[in-house]
Amino acid sequence: MRILVVDDEPDVVEVIELTFSLQWPGSEVIAAADGESALKLFQTGQPDVVVLDVGLPGMTGFEVCRRLRAISDVPILMLTVRGEELDRLKGLELGADDYIVKPFSPLELVARTRAVLRRSQVGPLATVSRVIVDEELTLDLDNREVILRGQPVKLTPTEGRILSQLVANAGHVVTQKTLLAKVWGWESEDDMLMLKVHIARLRDKLGDDAHNPRYIFTERGLGYRFVKPATVPFPPPSSP
After folding, report:
1. Do residue 134 and residue 156 come from a single domain?
2. Comparing C-alpha atoms, which of 195, 188, 239 is closest to residue 218?
């Protein structure tokens, strides 16, 4: 397992390298101190996951995230400063899968890195792999793909898992806590911001409108409900 760490603080990188070597035998940390070096190292090093600091010199972590997401769906975990909610929001909107706040526990970083990798490697959760929702929208859950008006739109692994959960329970409300626990794990059960941003990105890819939804409905104070397609039989909803 190869982890690309992008951070301009040598002490931080050293602690991360030491923690991974002790807690994850067989893993390898490769490091870059700026955005340009990170993009080059990504191409040559082919990492399995990227741990990316927002506050880089020159090219920001946001720009690195945007460029990585344009060419790859590699899991990205962003490092943000405590209290900077706008940084977390922007990182998630650009395609980051998770974030951790500085100063952080190195053991928590390892745990969250394992979690984003686990989510990226597990296949769709819905038992129906191809779903014809209506005349404009078809879902290919095996390939994490949306076919909207005949055009394919690729989903990230996290978006695919959210959609799989909603589709598996189509017509029924899936609570926010259930989605967070199923998609991100128990350690993220209270992170509503992360869920809301990913739902917004998913709606955008489905061509949906939060104010006048056609596919994903918000049940205020509860969670989200996916419209039940009329043309495809669904299994009974899974228990929260």
Report:
1. yes
2. 195
Same domain? 42 vs 153: no
Write out pLDDT tens, residues 176-233: 988 888 887 755 566 788 889 899 999 999 999 989 999 999 998 899 999 987 554 4
Reported in sequence order, the residue ranges of the chain that DSSP labels E, i.e. its strands, are 2-6, 28-32, 49-53, 76-81, 98-102, 130-132, 137-140, 145-148, 151-154, 173-175, 216-219, 223-226
134 vs 80: CA distance, rounded Å: 40
Whether 139 maps to a domain, the answer reads: yes
Q: Which tokens in the block code for residue 164? A: 């799989």
Instruction: Determine the straight-line distance between the first and last CA of the chain, rounded to whole angstroms.
Output: 32
Domain of 188, in residue numbers? 130-226
- Rounded to 10 degrees, the C-alpha dihedral 72/149/164/160 comes to 10
Predicted model pTM: 0.70
Residue 239 lies in a domain: no
Give the burial class of 54: count Cβ atoms within 10 A of its Cβ; 0-12 exposed, 13-18 middle, 19 or more buried: buried
CATH of the domain at 135: 1.10.10.10
Strand-pair partners of 52: 6, 78
Residues 9 and 110 in one domain: yes
CATH number of the domain within which 98 lies = 3.40.50.2300
Residue 189 token pair: 């059960």
Q: State both tokens at 103.
A: 């100063």
Q: How many residues does the chain have?
A: 240
- Count CB neighbours of 110 within 10 A: 18
For tokens 């974030």, name the residue: 99
Q: Does 12 share its domain with 91?
A: yes
